[in-house]
Design brief:
155 residues, two-stranded parallel ribbon, 30% helix, globular
C-alpha cells in the first residue's frame, strides 16, 4: 500500500471517530448541550443565554413525531416540527404557521388540549381530526416545560 493511500485511510478513520455529526446540532442555536436533561423523549437539550432549546421525539397518530421547542423567559418563543408521518389533510397541519404560533404560549403551567376554544392561556386547541397528534405534541412540550423549570431551579 502506498503511503499516500495509508494516510488517506487514517484521515477518514479520524474523521469518523472524532467528527461524528450530530443530526440535531442545527437546532442548537449555538447553545451548550446539557446531556443530563435529555431523556427517552427529549433527545437534545441546549442552553444559550436564557433560552432552553429542546428536540423531542414523541408518539403521534402515525408513528414518531420530532420537533423542537425554544423556551425563554417563561414562554415558548419558537416551535417547529422537524419530521412527522401524519396525513397531510389532518395531522400535517402541525407544520403550518398558525399551528406553530398556537404553541407560543406561557409555560407557567403544563399545557392541556381542548377541542373547540381556549379559555385559559395554558390550553392548546387541537387540530380538528388530529387530536391524537396534538396531544402527542402537548405531552412532549410538557416534558420540555418541566425540564426548563428544573433547570432554572438548579441554576
Amino acid at each position: 500500500m502506498k503511503p499516500i493511500h495509508f494516510f488517506a485511510i487514517l484521515v477518514i478513520i479520524a474523521m469518523i471517530v472524532f467528527c461524528q455529526i450530530d443530526e440535531y446540532d442545527i437546532y442548537s442555536h449555538d447553545g451548550l448541550r446539557i446531556k443530563s436533561y435529555e431523556s427517552e423523549n427529549i433527545v437534545r437539550t441546549y442552553v444559550k443565554d436564557q433560552s432552553m432549546i429542546q428536540v423531542v421525539h414523541t408518539d403521534a397518530y402515525h408513528e414518531d413525531l420530532v420537533f423542537y421547542v425554544v423556551i425563554s423567559k417563561g414562554e415558548i418563543t419558537d416551535f417547529k416540527v422537524i419530521e412527522h408521518r401524519e396525513t397531510e389533510d389532518y395531522g400535517g397541519y402541525i407544520e403550518t404557521d398558525w399551528f406553530e404560533k398556537r404553541m407560543q404560549v406561557s409555560v407557567s403551567k403544563p399545557l392541556t388540549v381542548v377541542k373547540l376554544s381556549k379559555t385559559s392561556e395554558n390550553e392548546i386547541v387541537a387540530i380538528t381530526g388530529a387530536t391524537i397528534t396534538t396531544q402527542g405534541i402537548v405531552y412532549g412540550v410538557n416534558d420540555c416545560i418541566e425540564n426548563y423549570w428544573r433547570y432554572l431551579d438548579e441554576f
